[in-house]
Write a structure and sequence with these properties.
By secondary structure, the protein is an alpha/beta fold. The protein is about 45% helix and about 10% strand. The chain has a single domain, classed as 3-Layer(aba) Sandwich (Rossmann fold), CATH 3.40.50.300. The radius of gyration is 19 Å and the shape is globular. The structure holds 3'-phosphate-adenosine-5'-diphosphate.
């Protein structure tokens, strides 16, 4: 079923203004704002851009989330491969609980976003209701699109682990542009590629600026490699088995020789592959808890799709920004 225009209008209103608390209402008028795409405006809070409803969730999780040393937080900027990483990490840490990937595995009947909740877009988005996280047995797995600077303090102070995934900004942008168009509100034309590109390059993009977001986690991963693991979509695509094992080691749950000989690692990779997840009935119908259709999270799942859509000037421009921000820090795409 196509997401109806009415549903998308509800999403855009939801992101814009739906049900925000007093603190958020008072904060918004004090923040810089810019034209949004899916909602009318985005606001800059702590240096990054958000829809109003999401600022509600950010304030709440910053205030209330209490990290445990055993927690695992999966972090991305949108369209970097969040859905894939959620699936991989869920399957990885629950591999003893759900050994049968063919019959009763939760990923066969639930979208990864419903198994690994976001703080700001899910658990903490209700202004009146805080989540009860006490009942979740460790290790608890959460996700967020927040920058390092904006993480709840207890995440930085505790020994919980952070797994950060990013992607070539050109593919991140192209994926974002397609995504925004799929969820755009009623009666809106396709968003002009050039205008969305210009906003992205200025840093005005949901949870952006892209470059500051990535750099924050890159620096942290160099400083505290036991705390923050830094991954690239392109590298996991190229060597999935190697990186799955690296994630397992980082989370201190490495694969045993016996598991490897049984092919548990390959089973997880097959279960979480783009081909498998995107063809599951659950991911073709229905919506995730934050009102986006499940199928919207699966498009092409390839490296280098930017070659099909960006002009030579755009490529040059975005490469120049990337070089400017990243080269002195030894980060390359
Ligand atoms: P989100 O941050 O809004 O949750 P996210 O999952 O990061 O979205 O981005 C979706 C991208 O990941 C899509 O990329 P594309 O637009 O370039 O195709 C989507 O196809 C890709 N993706 C989703 N699932 C997988 C997967 N299992 N393996 C590889 N790529 C995937």
């Amino acid at each position: 079923m196509e997401n109806s225009n009415d549903e998308n209008t509800i999403l855009s209103e939801f992101l814009q203004q739906h049900d925000i608390g007093q603190e958020c209402k008072e904060l918004l008028p004090t923040l810089p704002l810019e034209k949004g795409w899916v909602a009318t405006h985005v606001y800059q809070y702590q240096g990054f851009w958000f829809y109003p409803k999401i600022i509600q969730g950010v304030l709440s999780c910053q205030k209330h989330f209490q990290a445990l040393d055993t927690d695992i937080v999966l972090i991305t900027i949108p369209k970097s491969g969040t859905t894939w990483l959620k699936a991989l990490m869920f399957a990885l840490i629950n591999r003893n609980k759900y050994p049968n990937i063919h019959s009763d595995h939760p990923l066969l009947t639930k979208n990864p976003h419903d198994l690994v909740p976001f703080w700001e877009i899910g658990l903490y988005s209700d202004k009146d209701l805080l989540p009860d996280l006490q009942t979740i047995s460790p290790p608890r797995l959460f996700s967020t699109h927040l920058s390092y600077e904006s993480l709840p303090k207890s995440v930085k102070d505790s020994s919980c682990k952070v797994v950060y995934l990013c992607r070539d900004p050109k593919d991140t942008f192209v994926s974002l542009w397609h995504f925004l168009n799929k969820i755009r509100p009623k009666n809106r034309e396709t968003f002009p590629l050039e205008e969305v590109f210009e906003s992205f390059c200025r840093g005005v993009t949901p949870f952006g600026p892209f470059w500051e977001h990535v750099l924050g986690y890159w620096k942290k991963s160099l400083e505290s490699p036991k705390k923050v693991m830094f991954l690239k979509y392109e590298e996991i695509k190229m060597r999935p088995n190697f990186y799955l094992k690296e994630i397992a080691k980082f989370l201190e749950c490495p694969f045993s020789k016996e598991e490897e000989s049984k092919g548990v690692d390959d089973d997880i990779l097959n279960l979480c592959s783009f081909e498998n997840l995107s063809n599951l009935e659950v991911n073709k119908i229905g919506t995730v808890s934050f009102k986006v259709e499940n199928k919207t999270f699966f498009r092409r799942g390839q490296v280098g799709d930017w070659k099909n859509i960006l002009t030579t000037d755009m490529i040059e421009h975005i490469n120049t920004i990337t070089e400017l921000f990243f080269s002195k820090h030894g980060l390359k795409f």
